[in-house]
Amino acid sequence: MRHRLALLAVLSVAALGTVVPLGASPAWAAPTLSVSKTTGLADGTSVTVNGSGFTPSLKQIAVGQCIENMKGPTDCNLAGGAQFVNADASGKLPTVTIKLAQKFGSFDCTQRTCVVAAQILPSGNNGDEVEKNKVAVKLSFGAAAAPTSAAPAATAEATALPKTGPGDEPVVVVLAGTALLFLGIGLLVVLPARRRRARAVAG
Question: How many CB atoms within 10 Å of residue 37?
Answer without folding.
Answer: 14
